[in-house]
Design goal:
The complex is a heterodimer of chains A (118) and B (896).
Chain A (H helix, E strand, L loop, with lengths): L1 H23 L5 E2 H11 L8 H13 L3 E7 L5 E7 L1 H25 L7
Chain B lengths: L7 H21 L4 H12 L2 H10 L4 H19 L1 H30 L10 E4 L19 H10 L3 E8 L3 E8 L6 E8 L3 H5 L5 E2 L15 E4 L1 H8 L9 E4 L2 E8 L15 E4 L3 H4 L14 E7 L5 H20 L5 H9 L4 E3 L6 H38 L1 H9 L4 H37 L15 H27 L3 H6 L11 H33 L10 E6 L10 H15 L4 E7 L8 E6 L12 E7 L3 H5 L3 E4 L13 E5 H7 L9 E4 L9 E7 L14 E5 L9 E6 L3 H15 L5 E6 H7 L2 H35 L1 H9 L4 H33 L12 H27 L3 H6 L2
Helix pairs in contact in B: 1-2, 1-3, 4-14, 5-12, 5-14, 5-15, 6-10, 12-13, 12-15, 12-17, 12-23, 14-15, 17-23, 17-25, 17-26, 18-21, 23-25, 23-26, 25-26
Classes of the chains: A alpha+beta (118), B alpha+beta (896).
Chain lengths: 118, 896
């Protein structure tokens, strides 16, 4: 059924997005717009994060206690909500990173060396 | 996650901030204010969606939806008070009937005794027998010595206790030294009975082990809560008061808790007295040391870790030893056989002992099935109503769907409405059931007074009702909800308010009508079978004349009579004095009349001894000389008893036709001899002096059974029955009879216990209960089905007014239109009948044991029920059809 498919897709996206957010926050507190921007820049625009999806994800991570938030002032003197990594979040990041690396490596092995595309 | 820490406005502010930052950034890249804002929005995506997701996360969404659905449902139900009222009442009847029957079933068949760990209790035997059994090695009833042995030596039980298998009902005793005698029910129990059950006195103390010995040494009594309440208005000073029964004075030492009615369901003793007082309570009995006087029920409480199977093995091993010891060194051949066959079965006593259970279980199961069917029909009716309403709500649903409501959500909404209906119906039903429960209890076959049972709904009953209501909601709601939400938006929105695409709803509605007719027919056929059974029973030839006979109860042992000549004189004087009264045609003292228990035993005839295959059992009665005249049992041969039959004259008996045919065949039985008791060594000392017609003794259904009557002059024993054949009005005669007996002995307790006719009718109460209730429910079901048919047809006529008008304008006449409409509903009815008959035939076979004088496939009943169903259904279809036939073509054509 269609709802089932949608759920699968969401879950995949969620996991990935969560990892990216946590990873971005390792460099220090950042507000939502900054996080979105940072992901876009580091992935050289490969991963386009829809900002609308970002905030519910931030909310979820906050509820799980992996990130904490408070209102502050941005570099250009605007009010913004800043997120920072909690110790639990740091642990989660290590866990997720390891998992992701192993998954990527495994998939890499299955797919074999990059075939002559050039 | 009920509350949330973060406010929605905070989240909104954050998104606002984000958009500001993005706009800023785009502006830095050289876009205009306007363009930058647009770009920021675009990059963000759907703001509302994000907010919704924020709102939905961490919330019990279904709970929110449920509350919404409930609010909306209540509003919808309030908006249609007519529909709501009809639906709730229909469901209340259906659910209430189920609750009422279930609460009876619960109390009689399911509820556990209010004692400590009832599941550990096991009964020796099945608890089907009662009274006393003289046969060696009885596995249903046990002697006192057997109980003692079992209690001492068994290894399976933490304790074993015993109760006398019969309750002494209506013993006459004096409370606190008063001269007035009042009736009370007395139960004899072993000294450890209360401690064994773990029932503690709420006042005073209960019996202890010490109460078992010595015999006759403990004139003490425990009072039941109900009796304490009734007799002493719960005065604590009751402890220490005395009760005089016969010549023994008992001291009340304690009161049992209010919920405790003893261990036999359907009995409620007023007093419990230790078994060690048996000789005082029932003079003449010698149960305490007689191995052959087997009259006790034995209960065991399983030891921790012992299985019922292990206990059974242990008990049987031990029982064999005890019986062997009792019989002594030499067992007769018959005793050896008995011993070889004896196998004690341990059955659970968690729910108490009950002979009521055996009697009532079949009627209750039948009634449970009947009310189940009624509920199904009620469901079908509600479903049909909801369908019609669904059609009316089609536009509303279409609008809601087009506004984005999901189908699942709409179905859930409609189910919630049904749930509200069903739960309200259930609540009203519980009240109905509570109210009806007492009345139902009075109809259970028992005795002159209602069963002492507490039918107030308990947790199990309420749980049952709740589940039934849920299932009901699903049953009535699912189909209409699915149906109503399967609509094509475009069409429904385009249609006018009054015009609805009704064609699509009719197949389901028709199927519902067909099943309603079929189920109603099943109930009607059942009701017919039960009613005819009742009629058959009422016209059974009882062998006695049940009219114009009054029954009295006397209690000689209560005022100190012994089983000797003085007792015989008392009987004779009562008979003489009462027969001299004007309006009395005949009278007699007797052991039994009809359906009062029995004394059966085997007889021996010269040249023929009982064997296990041919046990030569007869049912015995001890009577006065006027018995046959009083009961109207015709004498076929020889004579009745007379003054010549005295204690010293040769022993005589009057037998019935079956006795003569079975055991004394060939030639006239008059003057021939037989012996009482199976032992052929016992002399053939009883001479047959008369033969009477067969009669019914225990039950109207019983087959002819051999019977023997003996004169009380030769069988001196306590007799309680005194019956009087009268002419004229009983109201005048009853006080005169009392007066005459008082002249014989001022102190002798006398109670009027109704007419023989009432007694016979009481034996049909179970049947009558089934017949009355199934008729009521059958008619109710047919009525509901008719409402369904009426609704459907009437709806069809309204919808087709236009078409009918055209037909009539083109020359169709009224009767043609009438027939056209009727044909549709009659087709449904015919289909329902065609389905209902085979179903009824199959169902009737299950209840054939309670039928009498007809088969389950009784053609008369089938035909009558089917005709009745068709007739009322035709009437239900005719009313709207007649309306159709009267349609004025001009009006119809202008319609819309």
């Amino acid at each position: 059924m269609s709802t089932q498919k949608e759920k699968d897709r969401l879950e995949l996206l969620q996991g990935t997005l969560d990892l990216l957010i946590l990873r971005t926050l390792i460099f220090g507190p950042q507000h939502g717009q900054g996080i979105g921007r940072a992901i876009q820049q580091t992935t050289k625009d490969v991963l386009l994060v829809e900002h609308g999806a970002l905030y519910p994800a931030l909310q979820r991570l906050e509820e799980r206690g992996w990130i904490a938030a408070e209102w502050g002032t941005s570099a250009n003197n605007r009010k913004a909500r800043f997120y920072r990594l909690t110790p639990a979040g740091r642990k989660q990041l290590v866990k997720e990173t390891t998992k992701w690396r192993r998954l990527a490596a495994a998939i890499g092995r299955v797919l074999g060396p990059e075939a002559g595309e050039g | 996650m009920f509350g949330r820490k973060r406010k929605h406005s905070d989240f909104k502010a954050e998104i606002e901030a984000h958009l500001e930052l993005e706009t800023e950034r785009f502006k830095e890249q050289g876009l205009s204010e306007e363009e930058a804002r647009m770009a920021a929005r675009r990059a963000f995506g759907n703001v509302t969606r994000a907010e919704e997701r924020f709102y939905e996360s961490g919330r019990w969404l279904w709970w929110d939806h449920l509350l919404q659905d409930l609010r909306f449902g209540l509003r919808m139900l309030r908006k249609n008070p007519g529909f709501t009222l009809v639906a709730v009442l229909t469901l209340a009847l259906g659910i209430g009937a189920n609750t009422a029957i279930f609460s009876l079933l619960n109390v009689i068949m399911l509820r556990e005794l209010p004692v400590q760990s009832p599941k550990q209790l096991l009964l020796f035997g099945k608890g089907r027998a009662g009274g006393s059994d003289g046969q060696f090695a009885s596995t249903e009833l046990y002697s006192y010595p057997f109980y003692r042995g079992m209690r001492q030596k068994n290894q399976a039980f933490s304790d074993v206790s015993a109760i006398l298998s019969l309750l002494f009902t209506k013993m006459h005793g004096a409370v606190g030294g008063s001269a007035e005698l009042e009736p009370m029910d007395v139960q004899l129990v072993a000294g450890n009975y209360f401690s064994f059950l773990g029932v503690k006195a709420i006042l005073g103390r209960s019996f202890t082990q010490a109460e078992d010995e010595p015999a006759s040494g403990h004139p003490v009594a425990m009072a039941s809560y109900a009796w304490w309440d009734r007799r002493f208005a719960r005065d604590p000073a009751a402890i220490g008061k005395t009760v005089t029964l016969g010549s023994t004075v008992y001291t009340i030492i304690g009161v049992t808790p209010p919920g405790f009615f003893g261990t036999t369901v359907g009995e409620s003793p007023d007093l419990w007295i230790p078994l060690s007082m048996e000789k005082q309570v029932s003079p003449g009995w010698n149960g305490l040391d007689d191995n052959a006087f087997q009259s006790l029920y034995i209960l065991g409480r399983l030891k921790q870790g012992v299985s019922a199977g292990q206990a059974q093995a242990n008990v049987n091993l031990l029982a064999r030893q005890i019986w062997q010891d009792q019989a002594g060194a030499t067992l007769t051949k018959r005793q050896q056989e008995d011993l070889a066959h004896a196998q004690i079965e341990l059955t659970s006593a968690a729910r108490g002992l009950s002979r009521i259970r055996f009697r009532a279980s079949m009627p209750l199961q039948i009634l449970m099935a009947v009310v189940g069917l009624v509920l199904l029909i009620a469901c079908a009716n509600i479903a049909n109503l909801s369908l019609a309403r669904g059609t009316a709500r089609e536009r509303e649903i279409a609008v809601r769907m087009s506004l984005g409501a999901g189908r699942a959500r709409l179905i859930r909404q409609m189910l919630t409405e049904n749930l509200l209906l069903a739960l309200s119906g259930g609540a009203v039903g519980v009240v109905l059931a509570w109210w009806a429960g007492g009345g139902l209890l009075a109809m259970i076959p028992h005795g002159p007074e209602p069963l002492p049972l507490d039918v107030a709904p308990d947790a199990r009953v309420l749980g049952f009702t709740f589940i039934v209501s849920l299932v009901t909601a699903l049953f009535c709601g699912m189909a209409p909800a699915l149906r109503a939400t399967r609509i094509t938006l475009g069409n429904s929105l385009k249609e006018g308010r009054g015009r609805i695409s009704a064609a699509s709803r009719t197949p389901l509605a028709k199927a519902l009508i067909v099943s309603q007719v079929a189920l109603s027919l099943v109930l009607l056929i059942g009701a017919g079978l039960f009613l005819r059974t009742l009629v058959n029973l009422a016209s059974v030839n009882t062998g006695f004349n049940k009219e114009n006979v009054l029954l009295f109860g006397i209690d000689p042992p209560a005022v100190g009579y012994k089983e000797d000549l003085r007792l015989v004189n008392l009987y004779q004087q009562i008979e003489q004095r009462v027969s001299a009264l004007p309006g009395v045609r005949a009278d007699s003292i007797s052991f039994f009349t009809f359906d009062e228990g029995e004394w059966t035993g085997s007889v021996s005839v010269l040249g023929r001894t009982p064997t296990p295959e041919d046990d030569m059992i007869v049912t015995n009665n001890v009577v006065g000389p006027g018995y046959f005249a009083t009961l109207g049992i015709s004498l076929l041969l020889g004579r009745s008893f007379g003054p010549q039959d005295t204690a010293n004259s040769p022993k005589v008996a009057v037998i019935n036709e079956t006795f003569a045919k079975w055991y004394l065949p060939g030639g006239s039985p008059i003057g021939r001899h037989f012996g009482l008791g199976g032992d052929p060594a016992h002399s053939n000392d009883i001479e047959v002096v008369g033969v009477v017609k067969n009669a019914k003794y225990q039950d109207l259904r019983e087959r002819p059974f051999p019977a023997a009557y003996y004169p009380y002059t030769q069988h001196v024993q306590y007799l309680n029955d005194f019956e009087v054949r009268y002419t004229g009005s009983p109201e005048a005669i009853i006080p005169e009879v009392r007066q005459a007996i008082r002249q014989v002995d001022r102190s002798l307790p006398v109670a009027y216990s109704g007419t023989l006719m009432q007694q016979v009718n009481r034996s049909m109460e179970g049947q009558s209960l089934i017949a009355r209730l199934s008729t009521f429910f059958g008619v109710l079901a047919a009525f509901l089905a008719c409402i369904g048919i009426y609704g459907l047809t009437s709806y069809g006529v309204t919808r087709r007014t236009n078409e009918i008008g055209i037909r009539m304008a083109l020359g169709a006449d009224g009767s043609g239109v009438l027939w056209m409409v009727m044909r549709e509903s009659l087709t449904l009815v015919a289909l329902g009948v065609a389905i209902g008959i085979p179903v009824a035939l199959a169902a009737a076979r299950l209840v054939s044991v309670v039928l009498y004088g007809l088969t389950a496939a009784d053609p008369t009943t089938l035909t009558l029920a089917a005709l009745l169903m068709i007739a009322v259904a035709a009437l239900a279809g005719y009313l709207p059809a007649r309306r159709a036939a009267k349609v004025d073509p001009m009006v119809a054509l202008r319609y819309e």
